[in-house]
Amino acid sequence: MDLDTFFVSVERLLNRELIKKPVLIGGVSDRGVVAACSYETRMFGVHSGMPMKMARMLCPEAIILRGNTANYSKFSDMVTEIIKEDIPLYEKSSIDEFYIDMTGMDRFFSSFQMILELQQRIVKETHLPISFGFASSKTVAKMATNEIKPGKLRIESGQEKPFLAPLSVKKIPMVGDKTYQTLFSLGLRRIKTVQEMPVKLMETALGANGRSIWKKANGIDNSPVMPYSERKSISTERTFERDTINVIHLRGIITAMVENLTFQLRKGSKLTSCVTVKIRYSDFNTHTKQLRLPYTAADHILIPQALNLFDRLYNRRLLVRLVGVRFSHLVGGGYQINLFDDAEEMINLYQAMDHLRKRFGERSVMLAAGMEAKTIGRLSQMNPFSGGPPPLLANRKI
């Protein structure tokens, strides 16, 4: 199930004057990025992820809104609660997308009819349009939803390949622009051509990724629907082998902690609106300060706020035994950072850093200010406390 043009639909509920008008949501400056767009703008070639400057040129009559993540999370939670009441097993893959497992339900009643009634209930109670694709696997269900939006589409068991065959290979989940160009250069433009190719030939051309694409093109996807559980917070702490009063090192550790946690947020498509910094002194007295802020997962926003909390908190000039950082009030989202505020260059920077971290390790790219923590970590590992994990993120909790 997929909420249609979700951000735009929420804005239209809050402002009826936006109905049937071209709407863009994202960074309002020319350097911003389109986070969402209405169907009225798509006929001009506008799509999400496009630079706002280009979107303005393509559709100059569009109404541009910054967006409000808190509102989107509120309505997403409303839909989630409705699904939770009626469905035994579901997965919330993003703020506006759900996978539902109806396996075995046909023993009692029509699974398709149950989802149809669920769709009608969501529309009636939230006034949000929602589409669904009904199929034998997550991949085919998602592609069916994308083809029918807005609406519903059922792909009978055994009809997966005929349904997928005429579609462009670009519509296969996990096929991005770069992979599409590779497939296009090989003459693979339609899924039918991939279906007819030997899987070993796909592996030769694209490696392990080639086998995955071939299986999806043939409607083969055994990945299960993962039970949904909302992560409430993410945190990390560092207990020192020797109590310290070195403020420069402490600020470096706070910086490294925030940098790591924001990467974890982006990797899990999460945003936070509450930062907490914790200090435990040598006398075991523990103090915390927290700050509410607009939803984000950006280092350049969260690091200064965490350091400011640390500066306000650390005023006793006592030896420090432990420091920690926690992000709470998490919400889901399909965007790596706050697209409503950040420029395209900043988004590209975070995406590049995250790509390097995923490939070479979480600490392969660090801010210079956080290098102090990395140095301390190396020294501490030479004389580890209690034989535990490396000190920097020794007590990370997710």
What brief labels describe this structure?
3 domains; five-stranded antiparallel sheet; disordered C terminus; single chain; Dna Ligase, domain 1; alpha+beta; 398 residues; MutS, DNA mismatch repair protein, domain I; 15 helices; DNA polymerase, domain 1; 13 strands
Report on this structure.
With 398 residues, the chain is of the alpha+beta class. The protein has three domains: 2-69, MutS, DNA mismatch repair protein, domain I (3-Layer(aba) Sandwich); 161-217, DNA polymerase, domain 1 (Orthogonal Bundle); 233-393, 2-Layer Sandwich (Dna Ligase, domain 1), CATH 3.30.1490.100. Helix content is 42%, strand content 19%. The protein contains 15 helices and 13 strands. The chain has helices spanning 6-14, 39-42, 52-58, 69-86, 111-126, 138-148, 160-164, 177-185, 191-196, 199-206, 208-217, 247-267, 299-313, 344-360, 371-381, and strands spanning 2-3, 23-26, 34-37, 63-65, 90-94, 97-100, 130-134, 152-154, 233-244, 270-281, 286-296, 320-328, 331-332. Strands 9, 10, 11, 12 and 13 form a five-stranded antiparallel sheet that branches. Helix 6 (138-148) links the parallel strand 7 and strand 8 (152-154). Helix 4 runs antiparallel to helix 5 and helix 12 runs antiparallel to helix 13. The longest helix is centred in the middle third of the chain and has 21 residues, at 247-267. The protein is globular, with a radius of gyration of 24 Å. It starts with a strand and ends in a 17-residue tail after the last helix.
